């Protein structure tokens, strides 16, 4: 702003405020980037010097061992959440975006369901975990096991998937739907072949981010999944299942170094896992944006 | 092709067959739509059903505790499980251990204190970050940094807690907090910032870490909102001779104010319900509100996760029931915050840019 007209005369105060404002906004960015880098570097520094690839192929034993049970358990939980929350979330996103009838007032339909979904997305995860423990593990006698953990986690991330699916579907141009209709496609066929197909990258992105959230959760799992030193079994109930965040949460303040290392190793694996999920989702977004621009 | 029967001539059979194939296809198409419609309808009801189920279980489970603890639950500071060895006594028809006395005031206060600290830290940092990313930095730098901010939102809270309790907390307690605690004058309000700084587990560290956790939520939404502000009003303001700071304060931020409020309240909701990181960093001290900003404390969510184990040892089930009551309090707080945010956003933003990240 070198040229300042008479409407806003240049004064020393305004110039000073401008400098302060710019400095503060740069400082704000540093206050975000700095601690984040510190945090990631901290985990790397704590885990990498003691890293052994055995961690991925052995189970915890006494005060040491590895995390094979937790790595596999986390992968099983990911797949389960993808199946349950993915199905429910994508379908309800389709409902909100495509199928819910608009109300007479012209506003979008499904207001009650939408509000419930929003409220659920802001719901404290530990309360969901508590209810899962009381109602499913104790009430239904399922014990600490995979199914209650999946139900609680899915309930947690379903609103997120529904939301991202809905917005991905809303970005599909209306002309696609009109074109499909002009070609004589039925609504259902057009939905499957045209609308969902062109919204697919956006939907997958939402799924990946939801998976990243689910992988990083601890509170809802502690009292639903339980913990075990054995590898995941095929049973949905009556059999506890290990997961990575548990080891970060319990082992970091154990007196024995080799146990602490498990905690840092688990943290490192988690960070890598989450980063991979988020980077893949970002690559997908970039690719779809490029396609959208090319088409125009 | 169920209606393919013995036919008098090949030609007639062929025609009939084509017709029936067409009919089957048409049927399949019609039914495909109803399959979509019905499965989507069922799926969209599941979140509502889940929410209702969760609230119902909480209410039923909390009812005995509500009857015994009474309204004083919200104002008392005790957290005394009572003697599990003596015979339980019965109050208002509910059996509970002798001497059990629960009060959630320190938990509620801790939840609100940490969340308020988090907001005070996160809001200016988020807006500054969003401003730097949209207006100041060149795109080749702004793009990866924006992604980095979004990645921060995905870092598991247990890892942030690990860093907070092992690295950040001790660092702050050794090098930063003493500067505040030893130099703030000993007068009524500022006295709150004096006191022993401990090892970094406590109120201020928890609030700061929560702030770092909600910055990505608020910052990335605010950044998206800033990008949606049309350039003309900004250029007009610049043509009038406003500086960048003035444009931001008088044009850009007011343009998306309700969206920023919505994002902030979303962040507040996350801070209120955050469990693991706070359970690791707060010091988990039950029974008292911290006398100063450095003191150890706990929150509702952290208490539920750290006490459920020992609550299960109460044979009367009263401790479990009390945790349900605490969970109900937390649920009510977070639902109210959420609904208020929606009302604010809906009321003030009808005509302005779309709010949130869709």
List keywords for this structure.
heterodimer; A: 296 residues; mainly alpha; MetI-like fold; two-stranded antiparallel ribbon; 70% helix; globular; B: 358 residues; 11 helices
What would you note in describing this structure?
The complex is a heterodimer of chains A (296) and B (358). Chain A is 70% helix and 1% strand. With 296 residues, chain A is mainly alpha-helical. A two-stranded antiparallel sheet of chain A has the order 1-2. The longest helix of chain A has 39 residues, at 257-295. Chain B has 358 residues and is mostly helical. Chain B folds into 2 domains: 10-69; 101-348, MetI-like fold (Orthogonal Bundle). Chain B has 11 helices and 4 strands, in the order αββββαααααααααα. In chain B, β2 (89-91) and β3 form a beta hairpin. In chain B, α1 packs across α11 (318-348), α2 packs across α8 and α8 (257-273) packs antiparallel against α11 (318-348). Chains A and B meet through α1, α2, α3, α4 and α5 of A and α1, α2, α3, α4 and α5 of B.
């Amino acid at each position: 702003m070198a040229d300042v007209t008479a409407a806003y005369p240049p004064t020393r105060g305004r110039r000073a405020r401008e400098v302060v404002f710019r400095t503060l906004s740069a400082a704000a960015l540093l206050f975000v980037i700095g601690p984040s880098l510190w945090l990631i570097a901290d985990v790397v520094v704590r885990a990498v010097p003691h890293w052994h690839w055995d961690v991925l192929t052995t189970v915890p034993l006494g005060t040491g061992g590895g995390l094979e049970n937790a790595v596999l358990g986390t992968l099983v939980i990911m797949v389960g959440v993808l199946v349950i929350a993915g199905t429910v979330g994508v379908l309800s996103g389709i409902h909100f975006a495509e199928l819910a009838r608009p109300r007479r007032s012209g506003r979008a339909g499904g207001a009650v369901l939408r509000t419930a979904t929003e409220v659920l997305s802001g719901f404290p995860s530990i309360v969901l975990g508590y209810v899962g423990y009381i109602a499913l593990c104790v009430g239904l006698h399922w014990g600490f096991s995979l199914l209650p953990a999946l139900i609680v986690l899915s309930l947690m991330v379903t609103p997120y998937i529904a939301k991202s699916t809905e917005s991905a579907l809303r970005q599909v141009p209306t002309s696609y739907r009109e074109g499909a209709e002009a070609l004589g496609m039925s609504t259902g066929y057009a939905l499957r072949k045209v609308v969902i197909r062109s919204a697919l990258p956006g939907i997958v992105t939402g799924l990946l981010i939801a998976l990243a959230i689910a992988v990083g959760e601890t509170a809802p799992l502690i009292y639903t999944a339980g913990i075990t030193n054995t590898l995941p079994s095929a049973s949905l109930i009556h059999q506890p299942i290990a997961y990575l965040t548990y080891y970060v949460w319990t082992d970091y303040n154990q007196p024995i170094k080799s146990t602490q290392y498990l905690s840092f190793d688990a943290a490192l694996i988690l960070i890598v896992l989450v980063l991979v999920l988020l980077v893949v989702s970002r690559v997908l977004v970039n690719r779809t944006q490029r396609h959208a621009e090319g088409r125009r | 092709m169920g209606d393919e029967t013995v036919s008098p001539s090949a030609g007639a059979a062929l025609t009939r067959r084509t017709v029936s194939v067409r009919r089957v296809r048409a049927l399949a198409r019609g039914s495909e739509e109803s399959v979509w419609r019905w499965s989507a309808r069922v799926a969209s009801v599941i979140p509502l059903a889940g929410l209702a189920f969760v609230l119902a279980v909480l209410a039923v489970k909390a009812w005995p505790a509500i009857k015994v603890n009474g309204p004083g639950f919200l104002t008392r500071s005790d957290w005394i499980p009572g003697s599990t060895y003596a015979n339980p006594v019965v109050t208002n028809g509910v059996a509970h251990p002798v001497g059990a006395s629960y009060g959630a005031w320190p938990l509620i206060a801790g939840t609100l204190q940490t969340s308020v600290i988090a907001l005070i830290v996160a809001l200016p940092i988020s807006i500054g970050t969003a401003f730097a990313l949209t207006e100041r930095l060149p795109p080749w730098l702004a793009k990866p940094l924006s992604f980095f901010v979004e990645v921060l939102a995905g870092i598991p809270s247990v890892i942030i807690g690990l860093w907070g309790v092992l690295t950040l907390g001790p660092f702050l307690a050794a090098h930063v907090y003493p500067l505040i605690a030893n130099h703030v004058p000993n007068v009524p309000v500022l006295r709150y910032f004096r006191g022993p700084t401990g090892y970094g587990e406590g109120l201020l560290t928890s609030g700061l870490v929560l702030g770092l956790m909600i910055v990505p939520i608020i910052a990335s939404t605010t950044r998206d909102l800033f990008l949606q502000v049309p350039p003309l009003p900004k250029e007009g303001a610049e043509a009038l001779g406003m500086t960048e700071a003035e444009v931001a304060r008088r044009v850009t931020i007011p343009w998306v104010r309700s969206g920023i409020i919505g994002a902030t309240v979303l962040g507040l909701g996350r801070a209120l319900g955050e469990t693991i990181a706070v359970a690791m960093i707060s010091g988990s001290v039950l029974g008292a509100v911290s006398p100063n900003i450095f003191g150890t404390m706990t929150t509702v969510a952290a208490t539920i996760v750290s006490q459920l184990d020992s609550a299960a040892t109460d044979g009367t089930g009263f401790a479990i029931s009390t945790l349900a009551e605490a969970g109900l309090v937390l649920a009510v707080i977070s639902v109210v915050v959420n609904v208020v945010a929606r009302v604010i956003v809906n009321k003030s933003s009808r005509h302005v840019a779309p709010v949130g990240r869709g």
